[in-house]
Amino acid sequence: MSAAVADAFDFAAWSRAHLQATEDALSQWVGVDAPAGLGEAMRYAVLDGGKRLRPLLVYAASEAVVAAAPAMCREAAVRAACAVELIHAYSLVHDDLPCMDNDVLRRGKPTVHVQFGEAPALLAGDALQAFAFELLTPEGPAVLPTVQAELCRLLARAAGSAGMAGGQAIDLASVGRALTETELRQMHRLKTGALLEGSVMMGAACAQAPAAAREALSRYGAALGLAFQVVDDILDVTADSATLGKTAGKDAACDKPTYVSLMGLDRARAHALELHAQALDALAQPALADTRALRALADLVVQRSH
Questions:
Q1: Residue of 2, 87, 154, 219 with fewest CB within 10 Å of its CB?
Q2: CA 203 – CA 65 distance, rounded (Å)
Q3: pLDDT at 27 over 90
Q4: CATH number, domain at 254?
Q5: Cα separation of 221 and 137, whole Å?
């Protein structure tokens, strides 16, 4: 791709369009007809907040393989984007509970258990997790059954014991312990990186990507997922709560191992840049048709301030 074509890419316009598609779909689908106030708690947890990085990765990865995605790929991508955001939202609801991180601020507003109570928050998280998989399995011909099955497998693995939940278990067991860099990397590869890499691979599945493209996108997603956590650890000690939209300094206060506590601030920043370079290098693959959005998202992850 020529520099002139690359320079013509309007990432702001691209992200606005995809974010609007995601918000419209989430607003239309989430919590509808849920009884006894459950829908209100579900919608509070998901709508009107968050960077929506994971949905954007789904779209960008699918378009990297199919530059002009056919209708079936677009339908699968919208559903996959919403599903991965629902899993992310449910995890935040549960992470914020008193039995976990006991946090009171998320996305600049009171956490779900503060707003609705602990039991309703727990149920809202459960319902969001279940609904994610319902979205991936629509009736009719909108999404091929083979694509539905692969999307469910990818999301379940990214969210379960081999991914996010497993990483969270390691995190809880590591409070007050000095981890090696290898141990810390493994914890964050599961806790944070698995769902980010899973988002990328779900986009590849929507586009029915060939093996070479999937391998490149997997390497991109793995590097990006780890970079995200390194930057998160940096921001926890350099940004304030108002900027972050959540409580700053929680990791240090809870004596949790982080890249900053292990490496120091300067080395952690350098490591984030190394991972950014690895992510971009993975995209230099002829099987990928258009990587501009993926490159812009990598920049966003490393340069973000919240």
A1: 2
A2: 9
A3: yes
A4: 1.10.600.10
A5: 24
pLDDT at residue 107, as a whole number: 84
Burial of 182 (0-12, 13-18, 19+ CB in 10 A): exposed
Q: Which domain range does residue 276 map to?
A: 3-303
| CB-based burial, 191-226: b 16+ in 10 Å, e otherwise | bbbbbbbbbbbbbbbbbbbeeebbebbebbbbbbbb
**In total, how many domains does the chain have?**
1
Cβ-based neighbour number of residue 63 at 10 Å: 26
Nearest CA to 205 among 129, 156, 153?
Answer: 153
109: helix, strand or coil: strand
**Mean pLDDT (the chain, rounded):** 91
Average pLDDT over residues 278-300: 95
Whole-structure pTM value:
0.91
